[in-house]
Amino acid sequence: GESVGLHLPTLSVQEGDNSIINCAYSNSASDYFIWYKQESGKGPQFIIDIRSNMDKRQGQRVTVLLNKTVKHLSLQIAATQPGDSAVYFCAENPSYKLIFGSGTRLLVRP
Amino acid sequence: KAGVTQTPRYLIKTRGQQVTLSCSPISGHRSVSWYQQTPGQGLQFLFEYFSETQRNKGNFPGRFSGRQFSNSRSEMNVSTLELGDSALYLCASSEGPGADYGYTFGSGTRLTVV
To answer: What DSSP designation does B9 have?
Structure first.
């Protein structure tokens, strides 16, 4: 069936280091991918998105990489800050809805 | 510009009761989608409304229903509540139908069924 999964459930990084969160997707029909950040008590917040006709997209301190050959998506956060501590979800859009991954918790050590 | 507003924030109901949750989208957004978030199943699509019409529905039983009003506000209803319905219910609004218009999520309604 359709699924979006993450390799690491928890990622702990030192403040100032770069973080990389990975995601595998299974639906070849997906043409739009999004990364969300969810802090405790809040709904998912859009971070960055990428269309299937792109391999890389950069935002402020964040970069998303898409490898369609192996159906892999990654989120890179540069100079990780304490405020980056949250759960991160990747999501794919094969049709009208989003299919979310199970999430990775990012912990930033001071 | 106000974000997506969901009310109430917290709700405790007894098994067998019914519940109605409300979502007010961002002004100008005509599409509202609902998702259920649980620790075990993660985020799962419930349904989507656009211009007062349900466009798509996820794999949930008929106890889950919703509607959208002419001002784009949406409500979802769960009847005959079960313990497994305990979850965070998230509403997302977008300018157009479908997920690729870009969602903005509300903070959710935390439903606890006892």
So the answer is: S
How many residue contacts between A and B have a Cβ separation below 8 Å? 54
- In chain A, positions 25-64, which contact chain B (CB-CB < 8 Å)? 31-32, 36, 41-46, 49
Residues in chain A closer than 8 A to B108 (CB atoms): 42-43
The 3-class secondary structure across chain A, one letter per residue, is: CCCEECCCCEEEEECCCCEEEEEEECCCCCCEEEEEEECCCCCCEEEEEEECCCCEEECCCEEEEEECCCCEEEEEECCCCHHHCEEEEEEECCCCCCEECCCEEEEEEC
For the record, the structure tokens of B26 come out as 């961002």
Selection from B1, B15, B29 nearest residue B91 by Cα: B29
User: Whole-angstrom Cα distance, residue B34 to residue B2?
Assistant: 19
Portion 60-79 of A in contact with B at CB < 8 A = none
Going residue by residue through chain A, which has 110 residues, state the pLDDT in tens, using 9 for 90 and above: 333 443 448 999 999 999 999 999 988 888 999 999 999 989 999 999 999 999 999 999 999 999 999 999 999 999 999 999 999 999 998 878 899 998 999 999 99
